[in-house]
Amino acid sequence: MDRTRTIRGLLAAATLGIILAGCSAGTVPPDTAKSAEAQRLATTLQSALATAGLPQPDVSVLTVLYGTDGSVSCANAGDTTHVDGLALFGSPSHGRRVPLDPKVVAYDEAVILTYCPDKLPAFQKTVADQTTPVQTIP
Question: What is the pLDDT of residues 47-88, one digit of tens each?
Fold first, then answer.
């Protein structure tokens, strides 16, 4: 009985650990998020989003998501993961592509331009390769 309880306790702790690790994926360490550089970049991103006519998340949200290096957004810019994210947005099936939402593209472009401008040409090529001649989303 005690052995079963111990095993269940360990499994519960491991499950909680996995859940907490998943919740922190895509975020940056607190020290990086609170840095002056992260604050400056977040403010720059807010301006870029406003210029694009998009909602601007709070600076505290942007610093946690992107830190000083753009985090996952810059790490994946233009690669297969990014292409799948754009082309399969909302669809778990690799065989079912969806139209690119121009607002999603504009948001990604603002993030990449702010945090990793050297990767912008790869992103733009990725978008151009995925775009259809007829725009279906206003």
Answer: 999 999 999 999 999 999 999 998 888 888 878 777 777 767
Q: Which two tokens stand for residue 105?
A: 């593209």
- Residue 41 · residue 66 · CB < 8 Å: yes
Q: Are 109 and 53 in contact (CB under 8 A)?
A: no
What ranges do the domains of the chain cover? Answer: 27-130
Look up the pTM and report it: 0.71
